[in-house]
Amino acid sequence: MGDFPEVLSLRKRKSVVVDSFPVMRDAVAKLLKQHRLADVVEKFDTAHSAFKGCLQLRPDFLITDVDLGGSRMGLDLCRSLKQLDAPPQVMVFSSTSAPNIVADCISSGADSFVHRSADPAYFVTAVRAMIGDRPVWYAGEDHEASIDVACIGPNIAQALTNREQEVLALLLQRYSNPEISNRLFLARQTVKNYVSSILQKLELSSRHELLTTYAESSCR
Question: Is pTM, for the whole model, over 0.70?
Answer without folding.
Answer: no
